[in-house]
Specification:
single chain; 10 helices
Length: about 260
Amino acid sequence: MWSFFHKLASPKHFYRIAGAWIPWLGGITLLLMVVGLYLGLWVAPPDYQQGDSYRIMFVHVPAAWMSLFIYVFMAVCGGIGLIWNMKMADIMAMTSAPIGASFTFLALVTGSIWGKPMWGTWWVWDARLTSELILLFLYLGYIALQNAIEDPRTAARAGAILAIVGSVNIPIIHYSVEWWNTLHQGPTVTRMDKPAIHSSMLWPLLLMALAFQLYFFTLLLMRARVELLYRERRSRWVRELMGNLQPSPLSNNREVI
């Protein structure tokens, strides 16, 4: 087990292992997303209060969950890179930020679409919505900080500090509906007693949540491989991979001798 994680920390082995995982993750993601959307949009019954308008939940809720999960993932990777100076942790943190920002934006947009028929307005300065908007700004600030600093290691350290400090917003988002009187619906799936949602709606929601998570890891591995090739472009294994490694005159002389 430890040897496997040690290999993942090696750029060369990570590139090879990630390349083997991507097709499988992508295939399972597509299957789960098709099944989840079919069950959520066609099989699940209409809600007794919201009718069919609630069906946007099967995109909005997983996107909101992923916006929180990815930021925590980014902060943990940034902390690992900051403490143990692991290159792969820095790359994983950096490449996950645009994906997390996309999920956060999707959650805000779908939430506004859902809120229009429910609340009569596209946007309110609700505690949950406002803290989620702050999360989007944190993602964008992290991306801007990475692009503003030329040295990758310095950029990784600055980004890690921002991600770790910004992670204080995650529990605020999660508990905002419990701490303040808000318009946003309270927790239904993560209740301690049992989910306040019928199984015909719960299972499609969980399938979509799993599909979104696997989609994130698929994109993450793809982006990490590209970033890894760029950073390691002068290393021997990348030049061998690209077929650009030319035998040196010294090696030719040795072969002749």
